[in-house]
Write a structure and sequence with these properties.
Blueprint: H1 10-18, H2 24-36, H3 38-56, H4 60-68, H5 72-86, H6 90-114, H7 122-129, H8 148-162, H9 166-177, H10 187-199, H11 203-214, H12 222-235, H13 239-250, H14 259-270
Length: 275
C-alpha cells in the first residue's frame, strides 16, 4: 500500500502519526502502510526513539530547533549551542549521558537527509508567493479604438477577472486578440490576458506576450510584465531564467516594489526543503 504523498510527504505522515495528530481515517491508512512496508516501520521506530529520547530528557526545545533549521550552517551553529548548554551545570552534565547519544543520532539522520532533500517545487514557490495583480485600467494604446463588440468582450473579461474566473476571462480576451494584428492589441489586454494564462496553467502561451511588454520602454505595464515573466519561467520550471530575472530585480534600487519579494523568492528557489 502506498501513502497518499500528494496529501502530505512521508516525513509529515510520520511526524503527525507520532504526535497523535493524524485524523482517524488517515491514521488507519498509515498503520496499514506500516504493516505492509517494513522499511517504513523502521523509520517510524527510529523517529519514535529519537522523539521519546528528547521528551524524556527535557530536550523538546532542541528537537523543535532541529526541525526549523534550513541550512548546514544553522545546523552547525545549533550543535555548538548544544555543546555550550551541556556544560552549563552539573545537572546538564549528568543528564548528557542519556540524551546526547539521541542528539547525535538525530543529527546524523539530518545530515544524511540533507543530501537527498529536493528543492521546493515550482508549484510550492508559486503558491507561497504569487499574488494575482488587481485589474487597473490605464489610458493605453488601442483600447479606445476597439469596436463595440470588442469593447463588450473586454467589459465581460474584466468582470470575470475581478471575480477570479481567470479561465473564462482568458476566453473573452482571446476573442479580441485573435481579431487584431499583434502590434495593435492593447497593452492592457496583452498584460491581463497573460495573467489569466498563468492562472490557467498556460505559462508558455503567456511568456511571448509578457516579453513584448517587458521590452517596451514606453509601456505602462513594462515593470509588471517583467515581474510576471518571473512566474512564467517558474511555472515552466526554468529556474535559471527565473533566478536571472530575480537577480536583476534584487540589484535594483530598494524603491522598486518587487525587490523584497524577489529576494524571498530567489531564496526559496535555491533552498532545499527539509521537513
Amino acid at each position: 500500500m502506498n501513502l497518499n504523498t500528494h496529501l502530505r510527504n512521508k516525513e509529515e505522515w510520520i511526524e503527525l502519526y507520532l504526535s497523535g495528530e493524524l485524523p482517524e481515517a488517515e491514521k488507519e491508512e498509515f498503520e496499514a502502510a506500516l504493516r505492509q512496508d517494513p522499511a517504513l516501520g523502521e523509520e517510524v521506530e527510529l523517529m519514535r526513539h529519537i522523539v521519546s529520547g528528547f521528551r524524556h530528557t527535557g530536550e523538546t526545545a532542541f528537537l523543535e530547533e532541529l526541525k526549523s533549521i534550513s541550512s548546514e550552517e544553522e545546523l552547525r551553529h545549533m550543535l555548538d549551542q548544544v555543546e555550550k548548554r551541556s556544560g552549563t551545570s552539573k545537572r546538564k552534565k549528568y543528564t548528557r549521558k542519556f540524551w546526547y547519544p539521541v542528539a547525535v543520532a538525530a543529527v546524523v539522520l539530518v545530515l544524511l537527509y540533507i543530501g537527498y532533500q529536493p528543492r521546493y517545487t515550482v508549484l510550492q514557490v508559486y503558491q507561497t508567493y504569487y499574488i494575482v495583480p488587481p485589474y487597473e485600467t490605464f489610458p493605453t494604446r488601442g483600447v479606445s479604438a476597439l469596436e463595440e463588440w470588442q469593447q463588450a468582450c473586454l467589459t465581460e473579461a474584466v468582470s470575470l477577472y475581478k471575480k477570479k474566473n481567470y479561465r473564462q476571462a482568458s476566453s473573452e480576451f482571446e476573442k479580441i486578440i485573435h481579431t487584431l494584428p499583434e502590434e495593435e492589441v492593447p497593452e492592457e489586454i496583452l498584460f491581463y490576458s497573460s495573467v489569466c494564462l498563468l492562472e490557467s496553467g498556460q505559462p508558455a502561451k503567456a511568456l511571448p506576450r509578457l516579453r513584448l511588454l517587458a521590452l517596451c520602454e514606453a509601456c505602462e505595464f513594462q515593470e509588471a510584465a517583467q515581474w510576471q515573466m518571473v512566474w512564467a519561467y517558474i511555472l515552466l520550471e526554468e529556474r535559471d531564467e527565473a533566478e536571472r530575472l530575480l537577480r536583476d530585480k534584487m540589484d535594483q534600487t530598494d524603491k522598486d516594489i518587487y525587490v523584497r519579494s524577489a529576494r524571498d523568492i530567489w531564496h526559496m528557489l535555491r533552498q532545499k526543503r527539509w521537513f
